Every structure is written in structure tokens, then in C-alpha cells.
Write the C-alpha cells for this entry.
Amino acid sequence: MKKAFKLFGIIVLVVVIGLLMAACDVVTDNDKSGGNSSSVDGDSSSEINKDFEYSEANGKININGYKGAGGKVTIPSKINGKPVVAISNSGDWGSSGVFRNNTRITEITIPDSVTIIGWYTFSGCTNLTSATIGNGVTRIEQAVFSGCTSLASVNIPSNVTVLERWAFENCTSLTSITIPNSVTTIRLYAFRGCTSLASVSIGNSVTGIDDGAFSGCTNLTGITIPSSVTSIGSEAFRDCTGLTSLNIVGNSSINIEGSAFNGCNRLTSLTWQNGSNIRGFGGLTNLTNVTIGNGVTSIGTGAFSSCTSLTSVTIPNSVTSIGTDAFSKCTSLASVTIGNGVTSIGNGAFARCTNLTSVTFQGTIPSSGFAQTNATVNSEPFPGDLRAKYLAADGGTGTYTRPSDSNTWTKQP
């Protein structure tokens, strides 16, 4: 009997020692994971409980709070075996932001399970340098990364369809962004004030670039607007003072608000391939080269007014109308070629183009479509008597010239 008790005691002692050794191994492993990173891959409930606050509904997890040490943070794909689908502290969208103004986090990784990142989630995280967003997200919501002044690297997943207002506003360290083909809309002020943004690739499904979307992106030097875009809002690229070249592929229904490129005073080269109504480039005093493609059908009111460095322009045969004040006050403009499709020239179209000395008409413009000069000095379609000379019996198609100090035009043989 004593031997049996002794044997039992030995067995208990061995089990206890084994358990103690296992506990030491767990502590050691936890220490090795160390640092200030919230490493919560998988489904480690003890770590998750320490770093995150969350709620459950319909078998899905919403993370609505963070109390970890910061550093590199990975959002878990599951908690307690249930998928993490949202990072939000108020219903579906969030209001004050789970990580808002958290200056301790430096990197964030969001798994594919997450479909919703609530409003302002990372807004004001001024030490956040990198964000990796999983493919489950379909919208970059309002102000999610606004004011993340250290954010230099972020991906927009291929399932995202909308970049909401202020999404990346004032991310002053962001140097490049690729907007995938899935995106259809870039909302108001989405990238406003991203002063280091030098490269933007816009996907070919974007239809709208809203008001102020890229305003104040002072390091942006060139951009191509794809043919899918049908609208560019007011001040969309305002004060992009580094912008020197612009390529608008365009389409038959594109509409550009008149102030879209206000303050882009270093823009020197513009190519517009297609569109029904060019406008919005008035007052760009360094614009020297304008290429109007064969898909353009009209040049709108004030389109290039006061572009004082523009020296020549060729209007293709596809254009049917030149609007009021389209090229007025282009004081360096010396030569113009007007294609054979033009049937209408508006009041003041080339008024006050004081250095214009050569105009070539390749087609017939009826007198009813050729605006007349009246008592208002700015209403003259061209300086001097060019309209009268063109409409005269011996006028019509051809090249007309005048001396720089005269308002009398002569048709060349």
C-alpha cells in the first residue's frame, strides 16, 4: 500500500513539473514576439483581448476600439473563430474613428476579411507610415486617412469602387498613388493638400473627379485623364503649381468646370484628344503648347482666355464652334488655323489678340455664324476688319495676314 502511494506521488510530481516547463515555454515565446508591435495574427484570444475592443453581431466581429502599445499593428482576420468584418466604432460607418489621432501606430495591415473601414478610422495618425488594405474593402470611406502626415505607402485594393471625400486629405508624405480600374468616383477633396504627391495613375473606369479632389497637390507634374471620365469638378486640380503637362483623353460627353485648373500657372503643355466642350484653362499664363485632337467638337466660352504665352493654335476639322472669348486676350498669339468644320465663331473669340497677324480659314463660315463687332469693344471676333474681309465676295477660304501695327487684313494669293 505504501509503495502504491509513493508511486502515485511520483506521478503527480512529474505531471506538475511538466506543466511548469510548458508554462515557461509559453512565456519565453511571448517574450520573443516582444517590442511594441500588436502581433495578433490568427485567433490568439488573450492577445486580442488585450489590444482590441470588439463586438459581435450575427456571427461577425466589429473592432470598435484599440488599446495596444502601437507600432506595427495587424488586424486579426478572426476573433473567437468568427470573422472580423469591420473596423468601426459606430454602426456600419463609424464617427470618431477607432484609431483616430493615435500617434503610436506606425504600420497597419488589414486582412481580406474586413469589408468596412469606418469614417475617420486612422485620421490624425501622424506617425503612420504604411497601410496595407485587404481585398475585402470596397470603399475608402470619408476621411479614413486624412491628416496622416507620415503616410508614404498605401494600396487601394482592386475591389474598391469609391474614394470618399477627404479620404487622403493632407497626407503630405504620400508620393504616388495608383487608382485601380475598379474605382468609378473620386469624391470631394479626396487628395487635397497631398503636397508630396508626384505621380497619380487614374484607372480607366473613373467617371467623376469631384470638386477639389487633387487641389493643392503642388508636387504633381503631369497627369493623364482617361476617356472614362465624364466630369471634372470645380477646383479639382486648383493650385497644382508643379503641373506642367496635362493629357485629357476625353470623350463626347466630358464636362470640365471652368475653375478646375485655376492656379496651375506652370502648365505649359495641354493635349485634349476628344470632347464636346473644351473650357477651363483661362488665365494659364505659361501655357505655350495646346494640341486639340480630331475628336474635339467645340471650344467653349473663355476656354483659353488670357493664356498670354500661347503663340499658335490649330483647330481641327472636327470642331464646329468656337465660343465667346475662347482665345480673347491671348496677347502672344500670332497664328491661327481654323479647320473646315467650323461654322460658328462667337463674340470676342480672338478679341484683343494684339499680336495675331496670320489666320488661315480652311472652310466656309456663314455670316450668321460669324459674330459681328458691335459697340462693345470686347465683342469683336478678331482684331481689325478680318470678318469683313473673309465675308467679302473675294474672301472665303485662305490665309489672311496683317502688319503688326495695322488693323487691315489682306488675303494672300
Summary: Residues 22-42 have pLDDT under 50 and may be disordered.
